[in-house]
């Protein structure tokens, strides 16, 4: 009978205890990261869990795929940055900052701990992409009505809690049926896409654009009063009026009617929406191609 040869690894008690501690830290971090699919919460949990092992004074996380940035703490002289990815999928960049330089030992340990963060970020990416598909109008690439219903509830609560302004712009393309009749539905789709792009080009980065239904769009403007919202609405109206769209042999000169409302102290979500919708209808009745502010 042949003698079986076994390779044995020799470890001392100190090495064993260190490995056991590292595994416990990994398990603790991984368990905590399984509680959310929100990017900001994932980064906050991860950085809180590693604070005792790798002290830091500031954190910056950027994810260009979703135009997302999370920043907490202070910016300092020394930092370490990691571009995170899995299977060629970018998961953003994480930067830790503090007053003293990070040691090689700390950086090596941090790199092992980052393994706990990769798959939760991947899951958050898949979840966010699924939400984007569910909340995006496939034709105009604006947010859809489902997204509007969810978003306005959140913005309404925030505005009331913080005593901030909140305004709505309702927009309807004038004579849209005529465009469909003369150019067909493909021409109508081209007109809708063009108007959506003109709206997005005319608003600020913080404003949100939704296709409410048919040829109707909504712009949600946080921390914006009625007067300022009216200025933005007029800018949108002029952009559409001054744009000439060529479709086949047809030249389309489009206009739009817009209604604007701003949150009042006794408003519900429904009354805020209804006032903007009514103002838009009044703009239609007043000859189209104009902006009406809800008083």
Automatic annotation (TrEMBL):
MF term (GO), any: diguanylate cyclase activity
Keywords associated with the record: Nucleotidyltransferase, Transferase
Q: Which InterPro entries match?
A: Diguanylate_Cyclase (IPR050469), GGDEF_dom (IPR000160), Nucleotide_cyclase (IPR029787), Rev_trsase/Diguanyl_cyclase (IPR043128)
In short, the EC number is 2.7.7.65
Please report a single Pfam family linked to this protein: GGDEF
Gene3D superfamilies, per this entry? 3.30.70.270
Annotated ranges, domain GGDEF: 164-295
GO biological process entries:
cell adhesion involved in single-species biofilm formation; negative regulation of bacterial-type flagellum-dependent cell motility
- For this entry, the protein name equals diguanylate cyclase
Its UniProt entry gives the catalysed reaction(s) as: 2 GTP = 3',3'-c-di-GMP + 2 diphosphate
Supply one GO CC term from the record.
plasma membrane
Cite the SMART domains for this sequence: GGDEF
Q: What class of enzyme is it?
A: transferase
Please give the SUPFAM superfamilies that the UniProt record associates with this protein. Answer: GAF domain-like, Nucleotide cyclase
Record NCBIfam families: GGDEF (TIGR00254)
**Essential cofactor(s):** Mg(2+)
**Is-annotated flag, keyword Transferase?**
yes
């Amino acid at each position: 009978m042949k003698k079986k040869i076994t390779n044995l690894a020799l470890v001392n008690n100190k090495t064993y205890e260190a490995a056991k501690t590292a595994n416990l830290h990994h398990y603790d971090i991984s368990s905590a990261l399984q509680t959310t699919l929100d990017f900001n919460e994932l980064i906050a949990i991860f950085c809180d869990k590693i604070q005792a092992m790798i002290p830091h004074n500031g954190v910056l996380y950027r994810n260009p795929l979703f135009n997302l940035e999370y920043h907490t703490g202070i910016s300092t002289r020394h930092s370490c940055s990691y571009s995170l990815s899995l299977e060629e999928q970018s998961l953003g960049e994480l930067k830790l900052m503090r007053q003293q330089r990070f040691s090689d030992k700390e950086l090596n340990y941090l790199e092992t701990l980052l393994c706990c963060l990769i798959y939760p970020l991947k899951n958050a990416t898949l979840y966010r992409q699924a939400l984007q598909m569910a909340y995006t109008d496939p034709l105009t690439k604006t947010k859809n009505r489902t997204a509007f219903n969810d978003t306005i509830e959140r913005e309404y609560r925030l505005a009331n809690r913080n005593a901030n302004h909140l305004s709505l712009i309702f927009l309807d393309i004038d004579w849209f049926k005529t465009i469909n009749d003369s150019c067909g539905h493909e021409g109508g789709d081209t007109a809708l896409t063009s108007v959506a792009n003109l709206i997005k080009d005319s608003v600020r980065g913080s404003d949100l654009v939704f296709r409410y239904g048919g040829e109707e769009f909504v712009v949600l403007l946080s921390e914006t009063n009625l007067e300022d919202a009216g200025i933005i609405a007029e800018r949108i109206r002029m952009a559409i009026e001054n744009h000439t769209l060529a479709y086949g042999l047809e030249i389309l000169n489009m206009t739009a009617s817009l209604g604007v409302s701003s949150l009042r102290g006794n408003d519900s979500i429904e009354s805020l929406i209804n006032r903007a919708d009514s103002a838009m209808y009044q703009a239609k009745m007043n000859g189209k191609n104009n902006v009406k502010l809800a008083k």
